[in-house]
Amino acid sequence: MSFNLANMSFEERAQIEAQKARLFEMWKNNLGKAKGEAARLIAEKSRRKGKWAEWVRTELDSMSPPEYADMVRSEVNKMMAAASANR
């Protein structure tokens, strides 16, 4: 299978572009919410101690749609990296 858009039909290219546009709109509309959710998850770290990572995975698995869960996961990773860089 080729990933060169020039080798795809117009319909295939249109589907890819429509999916990209849908994901971008979802990202724009939910970024603030995802950052807030990530902050909530991180705030639980000191309370949950050694069970925190497992709890976060469970929380992320319960989020819908999967693209939103990926956004939250990404924000958690960014916040955790920034926190460890500031130490």
Describe this structure in words.
α1 (10-43) crosses α4 (66-85). The chain is built from four helices and no strands. It has a domain at 31-87. The mean pLDDT is 93. With 87 residues, the protein is mostly helical.
Q: Sketch the topology as an H/E string, one letter per element.
A: HHHH
Number of strands: 0
**Cα separation of the termini:** 46 Å
Low-confidence stretches: none
- Protein structure class: mainly alpha
Please count the helical segments.
Answer: 4
Shape label: elongated
In a nutshell, what does this entry contain?
With 87 residues, the chain is mainly alpha-helical. 79% of the residues lie in helices and 0% in strands.
Q: Which tags fit this structure?
A:
single chain, 87 residues, mainly alpha, 4 helices
